[in-house]
Amino acid sequence: MSESAISEETASFEEICEFNRRGLFVGGSAKSGTTLLQSLLDGHPRLSVLPEQTSFFTRLSGFSDLHDYRAKARWLLEKTNLRLLAPDGVESARETGEGDPRDYTNFDYPHFVRLTEEFAKRPGLNDSLIFSEVARVYAIAKGCDWRSCIRWVEKTPGNEVYSDDIFKLYPEAKLLQIVRDPRAVFASRKKRLIERFGGHAKAHRLVREWNQSSRHIRKLQNLTHSYLLVCYEDLVLDSERIFEKISKFVGIELLPVMLEPTRAGKHWGGNSAYDKTFGGISSHSIDQWKKQLTDDEIWWIEMHCQEGMKIAGYPLDTDCKFSLSRWSRRMSGESWGGYIRARRGSLCQWAGLLEDCRYDVAPN
Description:
Helix 2 (13-20) crosses helix 8, helix 5 (69-78) packs across helix 8 and helix 10 (182-197) runs antiparallel to helix 11. The N and C termini lie far apart (48 Å). It is built from 18 helices and seven strands. It has helices at residues 3-9, 13-20, 34-42, 60-64, 69-78, 89-95, 109-119, 127-142, 163-169, 182-197, 203-214, 217-220, 232-237, 239-250, 289-292, 295-312, 324-328, 336-350; strands at 23-27, 47-49, 151-155, 174-179, 227-231, 262-263, 266-267. By secondary structure, it is α/β, with parallel strands linked by helices. The strands form two sheets. Strands 2-3-1-4-5 form a five-stranded parallel beta sheet, with helices on both faces. Helices cover 47% and strands 8% of the residues.
């Protein structure tokens, strides 16, 4: 092993703690553009971007219950999407329904695993440090200069929901949340479900998950130095202006490479439900929901998401008033089982029983 490689792997405890403080987390509801935003950050030479989501904060309690840091390191390697970095990871992604193109053929996965297991034996670790150490090991295995890295980046849809945990473990971290028109999110996810299963059973779950994300906007906007909200529509329509804003927030120089989507340094093929070929940032999908959704579906979404849409600045196309005939009518592609669950969820939302959909209480 060369002296430079040994130097990259060797770090003082102070350097480990310094790297730990540079976390940047990307969140937003599913199909809101989180992966696109991650791919645009990926090419910046002063950022180290984990190419796969970890859902670390979603399952933090189970992770914290593990008995030692070697077990926690194995959990991160085997139980999160970092397992897709393995040579057979692309095939695993297909089996689990992860449709994004992946190419990690040049990534030294055995080296990544060996260093992770080795670093996990180091004394003085805690839950915050073991996670950032995995991010640092990824940078080393990829050949990045982690010492000159301004921020290491992890993207998982829903990170914003766990902002309290994020800032508890990483007080100096930054959080980027991307929000997208819920009608576009609904149309994209519905299309994917129908293509895969022939129907969908999530008419209320989709609006519930969007509300769960958007209801955190008011709470987080007070964290002006640690939080930035990005609108998907602005990102694809006015990319350079939005990335000037993002660059200033993150503390990096705006470079042309940030407008070229990549994953692990290689061209990213996209995961749009509409674009089968992907050559870069595209606004093609912005208004696709107007063609994909029926009037009843648009009304359904707006009726359940109107508060969040007002906060995020999305205009309403309907009056959002309750109509028994519309509410009780089965929607396009909706299964009967999904119909029952969706109407039950709708009633629970109106009764105030779903905290995920409440905007009159501060989110936990």
